[in-house]
Amino acid sequence: MKIGELSRKTGVSIRSLRYYEKQGLITPERLTNGYRDFNPITVSTVHTIKLYLNLGLSTEQIAGFLHCVLQNEETFCSEIMPVYRLKLAEIERQIDELNQLKANLLDRIAYVQRDTKTDHD
């Protein structure tokens, strides 16, 4: 199937599919006219890529275990747990940073409101 059909079947833009190809996540055959020809199984591969992107993983991280999860169940892929744990730690750091920003902003709001009340009294 051509790239446009793959795009329609997966809901992924042609631009993104080209990027996946460049990253080595999908590999089409090339027709004599130079057009990409994707195997029908590529539809499920792209859905799998989308799943991992929706978990916040990068295409580089996905490339490290994609072949394994396409051939086996996730539980048999030893490469995946370190990636999951790393991503979870990153998210926890981001949550901590956001909580600190929230606390700082709440402090500032309280300060400004106190200062405003003092000016009007």
From TrEMBL:
Coiled-coil blocks: 81-115
Keywords: Coiled coil, DNA-binding, Transcription, Transcription regulation
CDD domains assigned to the protein according to its UniProt record, in alphabetical order: HTH_MerR-like_sg3
InterPro entries registered for this protein in UniProt: DNA-bd_dom_put_sf, MerR-type_HTH_dom, MerR_fam
SUPFAM superfamilies for the chain: Putative DNA-binding domain
Pfam families: MerR_1
Limits of the HTH merR-type domain: 1-68
Protein name in the entry: MerR family transcriptional regulator
